[in-house]
């Protein structure tokens, strides 16, 4: 369980995040959703340990990790642009971080992740020979072999289209379920957040506009911003939103 308690962040006189309070259960997929500049990436970086909060606490499984380094936290991130090494093949990218890991994984354990992500036919390809979806899966595999306590993803679907995007969405869901891996995703896309996540944190100008399940957000938006943002971004009328997610929300 990860608890964000009164998390705030300021840069000089500008408040970027104000009093964020949420609880993330083990194994949940959580999306941080909001318009550009709302503070969602800053919040992701605070959770990762890349940025220090101005106020508040991060509590992981009952322990205050607010002052812990990235390495001490043991979380890991998949970047938006994949951040793969172009001079290495897919396999060498996947195992690159293991040489600096104190507890090594066996080749068989690494292969389990490779098989899970269906990457075996592509292991000897250089990065420029891979499709966008394959690059994303290599990036995810590289992160998973480090056995993160929490998986963070920064706009993981933004560079993908159509069938490939849907395939990666399903793969992220499978990873969270198969490994009971808490997964936190930054996205600006409401449809992506609502169809991928167990819960969605909608941020508006650094504050929590709503935190709840997709069903709760669709059926009972807490304020006008949430309703307008969801409907405007999805380009649909309110009576059609229920059809989009394939079920009726009371």
Automatic annotation (TrEMBL):
Pfam families: ABC_tran. Keywords: ATP-binding, Cell membrane, Ion transport, Iron, Iron transport, Membrane, Nucleotide-binding, Transport. One of its GO terms (molecular function) is ATP binding. This is ATP-binding cassette domain-containing protein. It comes from the Bacteria. Residues 2-230 form the ABC transporter domain. InterPro entries: AAA+_ATPase, ABC_SmlMolc_Importer, ABC_transporter-like_ATP-bd, ABC_transporter-like_CS, ABC_transpr_FbpC, P-loop_NTPase. Gene3D superfamilies: P-loop containing nucleotide triphosphate hydrolases. It comes from Lysinibacillus pakistanensis.
């Amino acid at each position: 369980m990860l608890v964000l308690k009164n998390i705030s962040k300021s840069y000089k006189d500008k408040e970027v995040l104000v009093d964020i309070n949420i609880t993330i259960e083990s194994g949940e997929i959580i999306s941080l959703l909001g318009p550009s500049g709302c503070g969602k990436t800053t919040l992701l970086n605070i959770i990762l340990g890349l940025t220090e909060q101005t106020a508040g606490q991060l509590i992981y499984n009952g322990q205050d990790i607010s002052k812990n380094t990235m390495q001490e936290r043991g979380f890991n991130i998949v970047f938006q642009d994949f951040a793969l090494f172009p001079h290495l093949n897919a396999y060498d990218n996947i195992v690159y971080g293991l040489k600096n890991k104190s507890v090594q994984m066996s080749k068989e354990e690494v292969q389990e992740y490779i098989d899970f992500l269906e990457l075996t036919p592509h292991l000897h390809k250089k990065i420029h020979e891979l499709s966008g979806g394959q690059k994303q899966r290599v990036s995810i595999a590289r992160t998973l072999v480090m056995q993160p306590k929490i998986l963070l993803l920064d706009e993981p679907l933004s560079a993908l289209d159509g069938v490939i995007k849907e395939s990666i969405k399903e793969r992220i869901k499978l990873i969270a379920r198969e490994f009971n891996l808490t997964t936190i995703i930054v996205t600006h896309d409401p449809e992506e957040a609502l169809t991928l996540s167990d819960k969605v944190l909608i941020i508006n100008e650094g504050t929590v506009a709503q935190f709840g399940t997709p069903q709760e957000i669709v059926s009972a938006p807490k304020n006008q911003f949430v309703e307008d943002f969801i409907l405007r971004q999805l380009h649909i009328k309110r009576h059609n939103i229920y059809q989009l997610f394939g079920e009726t929300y009371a």
